[in-house]
């Protein structure tokens, strides 16, 4: 028995040694590490373009444009000096003709500029409007025949061939021999040659000055929505080219002393005497209105009183309740806004003191009422 068991063990061992076994799967060879350049390896050759780029200085970071610092006194005095020269040469529209044309009404042929397609930043609205906004002022002869300062307001260019727009009331209190001219922000002065159209109820006058190739502002034919953004560029007081922003507050209507219906657009953008005729601009730089007057609402002891505004051009005294000047006339013997202590008004002798101001409403002519006076040439 033992012999047979030994033979079986030997046979099984022989079978195990001769049976084929599967070979193990080949393993991928490890990747060779990247070769590092030797310290003595030469750098790649540089082209002429590479050498030129290396010599070219890095671009400077963008800088903001330098602002225009307005010298009000110098700007105005140079305007008056140039206007006086034009008046002495007889190049301005004579007073009597000006009055006749102002009273006749009518419409003006204007080739209006289209508005921008896209909305602009406030600075871009200002930048585009600056060359189109003018100082409109006058001189007249005094008793000795010396030309003296008259009034000033604002106007804006509606067409490149010298057609500008301002308020009707700017010409409502003419002095004998008073003549007008307009100046742009660069100090170029152009005499007023003709009043093309005027409308008292709309408070609009369209004027032609002796100028060509001006930069016009586009005029909207639509009402700006209440709540929409607006800006005003004008000349409040003795501060020229002041840019303010706000929004449209409402539209209102009332009858004037002649029984004519007036329509107004309220805005919160600031303006004051001297801003008459200033363009009210929307976010595309189009004229949507024109500054005309302000209404001062005063404390009435807890009760409201219906205001009936009056208008004065020469602010010799503090404004009467509910009104401030709509255009600004200077005393003939005073320089612009530079008064000595002797020029200050005397304080009131005693009570009553004027009531406190609660609110000042800014009123503008809506753009469609300006556009009605313009016809396509």
TrEMBL record:
Keyword Plastid: no
Leader peptide range in chain numbering: 1-25
Claim: Signal is one of the keywords in the record: yes
Spans annotated as Disordered: 25-68, 299-356
Entry superkingdom: Bacteria
Keywords associated with the record: Signal
Domain Cyclic nucleotide-binding: 223-248
Annotated Low complexity bias: 37-47
UniProt feature, compositional bias: Pro residues: 25-36, 346-355
Entry protein name: Trypsin-like peptidase domain-containing protein
């Amino acid at each position: 028995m033992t012999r047979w068991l030994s033979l079986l063990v030997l046979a099984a061992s022989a079978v195990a040694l001769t049976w084929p076994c599967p070979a193990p799967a080949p393993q991928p060879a490890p990747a060779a590490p990247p070769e590092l350049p030797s310290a003595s390896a030469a750098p790649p050759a540089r082209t002429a373009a590479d050498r030129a780029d290396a010599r070219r200085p890095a671009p400077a970071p963008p800088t903001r444009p330098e602002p225009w610092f307005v010298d009000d006194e110098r700007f105005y005095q140079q305007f008056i000096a140039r206007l006086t020269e034009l008046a002495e040469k007889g190049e301005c529209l004579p007073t009597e003709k000006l009055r006749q044309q102002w009273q006749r009404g009518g419409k003006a042929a204007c080739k209006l500029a289209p508005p921008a397609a896209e909305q602009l930043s406030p600075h871009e609205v200002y930048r585009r409007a600056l060359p189109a906004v003018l100082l409109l002022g006058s001189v007249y002869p005094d008793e000795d025949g010396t030309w003296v300062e008259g009034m000033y307001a604002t106007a804006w260019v509606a067409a490149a061939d010298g057609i500008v727009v301002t308020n009707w009331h700017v010409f409502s209190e003419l002095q004998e021999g008073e003549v007008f001219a307009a100046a742009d922000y660069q100090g170029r002065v152009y005499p007023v040659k003709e009043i093309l159209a005027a409308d008292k109820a709309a408070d609009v006058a369209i004027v032609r000055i002796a100028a060509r190739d001006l930069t016009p502002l586009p005029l909207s034919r639509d009402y700006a929505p209440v709540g929409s953004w607006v800006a005003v560029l004008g000349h409040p007081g003795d501060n020229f080219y002041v840019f303010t922003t706000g929004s449209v507050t409402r539209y209102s209507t009332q009858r004037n002393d002649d029984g004519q219906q007036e329509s107004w657009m309220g805005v919160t953008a600031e303006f004051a005497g001297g801003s008459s005729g200033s363009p009210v601009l929307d976010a595309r730089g189009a004229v949507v209105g024109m500054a005309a007057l302000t209404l001062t609402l005063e404390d009435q002891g807890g009760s409201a009183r219906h205001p009936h505004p009056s208008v004065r051009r020469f602010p010799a005294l503090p404004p009467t309740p509910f009104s401030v000047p709509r255009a600004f006339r200077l005393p003939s013997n005073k320089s612009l806004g530079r008064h000595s202590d002797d020029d200050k008004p005397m304080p009131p002798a005693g009570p009553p003191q004027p009531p406190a101001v609660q609110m000042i409403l800014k009123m503008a002519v809506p753009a469609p009422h300006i556009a009605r006076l313009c016809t396509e040439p």
